[in-house]
Amino acid sequence: MATIHIDGKEYEVDGADNLLQACLSLGLDVPYFCWHPSLGSVGSCRQCAVKQFKDKDDTRGRLVMSCMTGIQDDSYISIEDDEAVKFRASIVEFLMRNHPHDCPVCAEGGHCHLQDMTVMTGHSKRRYRQEKRTHQNQYLGPFVKHEMNRCIACYRCVRFYKDYAGGTDLGVYGAHDNVYFGRAKDGVLESEFSGNLTEVCPTGVFTDKTHGDHYTRKWDLQFAPSICQGCSSGCNTSPGERYGEVRRIENRYNGQVNQYFLCDRGRFGYGYVNNADRPRLALLRDANAEDVDITLSVDSALDRTADRLKRARRVIGIGSPRASLESNFALRELVGAENFSTGIEAGELERLHLMQRMLRESGLPTPSQREIEHHDAVIVLGEDLTQTAARIALSLRQTARGGAVELAGEYKIPEWNAAAIDNYAQGYKHPVFMATVTETKLDDIARDTYHGSPEEIARFGFGIAAALDESAPSVGDLDDDVQRQVADIVDVLKNAKRPLIIAGESLRSNAVLKAAFNIAKAFKSAGLNGSLTLVPSEANSMGLAMLGGESLDWAIKEFARQDADAAVVLENDLYRRLPAKRVDEALDNLDTLLVVDHTPTPTCLRADIVLPAATFAEGDGTLVSQEGRAQRFFQVYDPSYYRPDDQTHEAWRWLHALHTTIEDRKVDWTQLDQVTQEVANAVPALAAIVDAAPNASFRIKGQKIARSPHRSSGRTAMRANLSVVEPRQPQDKDSMLAFSMEGYNGTHEPRQQIPFAWSPGWNSPQAWNKFQDEVGGSLRAGDPGIRLIEPDTDSDSRGLGYFSDIPSAFQLYHDRWQVVPLYHLHGSEETSSRSKPVQERIPDAYIALGAADVETLGLDRASKVRVRVGKHELLLPLRISSRLRRGVIGIPRGFENIPVDIFGEWARLEQEVRA
Ligand code: SF4
Ligand code: SF4
Ligand code: FES
User: Fold this and answer.
1) For the whole prediction, is pTM greater than 0.90?
2) pLDDT higher than threshold 90 for residue 24
């Protein structure tokens, strides 16, 4: 800590910060552009100038860039000094010289950092009368819009895109005062993190194109604190709504999880919420009338469904890892625990249970996304993280960059001094080792890569564990080359202060998980201060495994054996999990199939009755992320406000109402908190979820928290097409949030649940500064969510020992290829794939073959390959991989028309067709 004096007042600040960070952390306003809490300082914009004095007697002082000036104990600073004020005003005037001043038509207007800083510096008159420099804009794909004339040349975009996120297709071109930020030529931005440009850019050069089609100013949007449901990373989001549509998603700051950044699936994959084909009314499919759907009133839907379920011999409930804990629990209560299936395929469920045991019994901590960044050696076993848990991949990039920070730190270069670190360290990185089936987008930061089949990756991992700790089971027959690679990696790991092992579900391999566990255990045995990260596949996979229940295979067998004649399926498309034929045959045996979902999935289209469920935007609930963090998402808007006949409700509400219709229940859940409490009471492992967020009675100064900014306009006219009388706003019994703008939206009282970032004078996402304990740190009220899984640090004496079921070496055949799943951020996930802008980014399905196999088979790039796996036959265009090993083919998983049961199987490539 250090003592500094700013404009006559004494403050205690963190001596490791720069002056700008210190001022912002104290709540003092200093304008800035090029500095960003996650990107550090380069001192290029000159906007953050303040006066620094030699001592208390110095009256002249000198101007310094606060972002480039370290803290000196007992120093004297002035933000309000005349010269500093004039200097900052002149800088913004220069920066605005070529700016088009097109705020009224700019999508950034109203949440623009440039607007905020211009107002803050007092620049209000334009004196420049000459011609402005202009640029051509580029087509950058369906997500990001480009308007280069608004650029102030702060360089944040390239620093984020290239240095932070590892992108290669955005750059800066030109010289001195005529620089251009874009691609070498028009084209889709390739980075999985391109959407962050819309928040990183302090002006309107990069804006959200998906929002542009139904644009609303920030102050007119209604928000709620939400959780992304695109993967298991658990990123915090801030969805904005108007007229009953989600109109955009912005990042919501959580200092332990996503911090300032989301991936493009999370940011742009919301369109399915607005799709016109969603079920909005309860439907009865009348088989006698050629499957005509009859819409039902809520009462009639409940009565008729209850009637059918009462008549059933046995009802099985099928839950879902994309539904909340509360909805899954309500289903379990409805059908009874003995009739409840998690809706997860048996192999995956087994691996999820294994993961949970491993997280508890490895004795090692599971790091948050931010904590991942503070390791100094990482080995990734099997996961293509950029495609399966993208935000974790972004953290891993910062882990690697931590090498440069540490190296520079030895020479007293502070962590915030990004330019000096990069100059000094010249790209030095902490070691990251990638063992994957094919090339990945993290290979550029990897010190070494290993490519093999899933079993080979497992063997590689087992080999590392055995080399770290000789009591771990060894792999007898590793190739000499692989043994050398293992030895090199182990040398590095042994010298690391904080090594991390990451594995996950994507290869569907128990062996890979077990190998990762052996490495984690070997870290502990070798006395290393290691950590373990395991990545399940879906937003609530972890939570559902903790809730418990049978596999989907079990349920399907019960139907096939006719041991149950009715099913209630919750937010789950069974065809994405098990072979279509098995699902068809099983569902054919049912008298009643009830589906509660928000998406017209193939399962939903087979249902006898459909009850319209809420998405994340219309309902609340709790999810558990990959690190075991329970987090609550909250309803953004009430759809019935705009469409009075809309019957969308949280699935738990439907299921509970059904339950009370069938039998007179003693419990009567009218509020989310009651359900959450019941889950906590019933499942000890989930007991802490009640603390994932404050309950509905939480108030600040007697008020609920407002969902909309206080400048929100047009409310009285919003429903004028229905009635000119403005009805009372919907009342939210389930949360501490109020619909519309009434309620608390200040920054003085600490709160975790922040629907949108705003503070007086701070309309852009930079306003998060005002909610943090120190800029870029944690929220003052603590970061949202609660950890449910803590490692048993004394696990050596009990629990899981080393695994010894090491798979045998890969068998190469001349006429058969093992099918491994490949993943795509856009295309492999169910709901985001229904969003139109995302659909533009989904590649066509393909078969990937290693270059050696392509040569042996005499294929060329223009080939289509006929793939036979069991009874499936696919004709797919060829992609040549430089890394896939011989005898293995890769096919994207989760894509339309790609069967679910081909992965891990052996394929014959029987025919080649030249396109
Ligand atoms: S495009 Fe935006 S982020 Fe990039 S230099 Fe210009 S103003 Fe800065
Ligand atoms: S990493 Fe996963 S949770 Fe985070 S924004 Fe992307 S899809 Fe959503
Ligand atoms: S913010 Fe300090 S020079 Fe740009």
Assistant:
1) yes
2) yes
